[in-house]
Structures are given as structure tokens and as C-alpha cells.
Amino acid sequence: MKRLLMPAFLCSLAAIMTPSIASADADGSAILQQQCVSCHSITGPAAPTLTALWQKKGPDLFYAGNKYRSDWLETWLQKPKRIRPAGMFYMDHIKPGEKRDMVDESTLKEHVKLTAADAKAVVLALSAMKTNSALIKAEKHDASIAPGPLGEMMFDKIYGCMACHQIEPGYGGVTGPEMYTAGKRLTPEFMLSYIRSPQAWDPKIWMPNKHVPDANMQKLVNYTIHLSKENFDE
Ligand code: HEC
Ligand code: HEC
Q1: How far is the CA of 184 from the centre of ligand 1 (A)?
Q2: Does 20 fall in a domain?
Q3: How far apart are CA 96 and CA 77, in angstroms?
Q4: Cα–Cα distances in Å, from 36 out to 57, 111, 189?
Q5: What is the pLDDT of residues 94-143, one digit of tens each?
Q6: Are 221 and 191 a contacting pair, CB within 8 Å?
Q7: What residue's CA is closest to ligand 1, atom 19?
Q8: How many structural domains is the chain composed of?
């Protein structure tokens, strides 16, 4: 019995003395493995069934390099702010209200925060994940097509996007991510591609394909970019 004690003691000493890989050299891939994969998929594929979709604990990150603007990503990881007003899956976070269901804030958790050095390293690792580059290459953003009043009308009424997306804090649907910072968060090509075919990115997602013609898609995307010029983060 005594013989066993020694190696066990040495083992625990080694565990105390080995610094975590993450803090030692801020290796982004190691941080993702240690702190993120319990909630996010970094290898794919997207949820193949509705049950898998509803059980997702966080958005997929395996195409992060196709999706995010890295400057936004670096800031957000240090100071995360809610993007989905009713969390990942709204059914888990709503309660009956007087007139209609409302978001039950008490069920929503704060997101993990990273230090500046760790955020930088993680952004490097995430930016290299470009599984869906073929979808992105098929898109061409035209910033010269002004959204005009039609941009908002299309978003709010014609295509009914506002039923699921907020266009300012507290105004719009809660079952999708808010759109008033989308222009800062997402690459325009990702937005175009996602609107063209949400199911090409996430086969079971409940965002409908509205078969929006190209010119109108540019207007919708430029409308969200326009919305993001207002600083809602203050
Ligand atoms: C406990 C589960 C959990 C862990 C652990 C976690 N996340 Fe998240 N993450 C979430 C949820 C839930 C959201 C959606 C938040 C929202 O919409 O407000 C999210 C959102 C994000 C987003 C924004 C994505 C988008 O498309 O809207 C990024 C980027 C992100 N997480 C990166 C990370 C990284 C990097 C780590 C590890 C350092 C991490 N997360 C750890 C649950 C988690
Ligand atoms: C029935 C609800 C619903 C409608 C209607 C809807 N969406 Fe979505 N939308 C979603 C959901 C759900 C997601 C993906 C959420 C996620 O990844 O967590 C999404 C994702 C997006 C994204 C990617 C955002 C991100 O942060 O990843 C964009 C851009 C978008 N929608 C724009 C639109 C536009 C434009 C319309 C109208 C043509 C529209 N949506 C209509 C529910 C909806």
C-alpha cells in the first residue's frame, strides 16, 4: 500500500506544477479545445436532425473564418454581449406572459470572457476555419446598392424578417440573432449566402428560404450594415 502512495503524490504535484497550455503560450486551438468545445462545434458537421439542432449549446464555430469579422470577434470575446435575445433555442428560455410569451432572463447565462491575449489567439485559430468557403466564393457584395426606404420595408414587411430578428434592442422577434449589430459581426458574403440558403449552412434551421432575388438581397444586407452604424454598444 505504501508503495502506491509515492507515485500518486508525484502525479498530483506534476498536475499543480504544469501550467495550463492556454495561459502559457496563448495557443488559440488549445483554448478552443479546453474552454469552448463543450458548447460549440469546431469540427462540424452542422446538426443533422431537429433534435440535434435544439440540443445545441452554442452556435457552430467550424466555419468561423467564413462568418465573422475578426475585429468584432476579438472585442466580443473579451466583452460578450447577448446576440440571441432568447438564447440558443427560444423554447428553453421563454415563459408565459400576460399577453404573450416572454423571454425568461433568469434562464440565460453570461458568456465566458477571455483576456486580450487569449482572445487574439482564439481569433487566429477561428479565422483559419473556413469549411464553407465554396458558399462564400459564390457571393459578391455590392456596397453601392443603397438600402433606401425599401430595404427596411423588405426586412420588416415584405419578407417578414423582423418576425424573428430585432432591428433595434427590444424591437422585433426573439427567435433569431439580433440584426442591429450584424453588419459589424458578420462578413457581407456570409449574410448574402445565409439569406440565399439558410439550410446550406444549417440543414435543419427554422429560418425560411424566402427566395429573395439578388438585388433585394444586396439591399437587405446593406440595410443591416446601415443599422450597425448606430452604436448600440454604448
Ligand atoms: C456554456 C456554453 C458555452 C461555452 C463554454 C462557450 N460558449 Fe460561446 N456561446 C454560447 C452561447 C449560448 C452563445 C450564444 C450567445 C448569444 O447569442 O447571445 C455563444 C456565442 C458565441 C459566439 C458568437 C457566435 C455567433 O455566431 O453569434 C462566439 C464567437 C463564441 N461563443 C465563442 C466562444 C469561444 C471562443 C469559447 C471558448 C473560449 C466559447 N464560446 C465558450 C455558449 C458557450
Ligand atoms: C422564422 C424565423 C426567421 C425568419 C423569418 C428569418 N430568419 Fe434569419 N435567422 C433565423 C435563425 C433561427 C437564424 C440562425 C440562428 C443561429 O445561427 O443561431 C437566422 C440567421 C440569420 C442570419 C445570420 C445571422 C447570424 O448572426 O448568424 C442573417 C443574416 C439572417 N438570418 C437574415 C434574415 C433575413 C434578411 C430574413 C428575411 C429575408 C430572415 N433572416 C428571416 C430565423 C429567421
Answers
A1: 17
A2: no
A3: 32
A4: 10, 11, 26
A5: 888 888 888 988 888 999 999 999 999 999 999 999 999 999 999 999 99
A6: yes
A7: 58
A8: 1
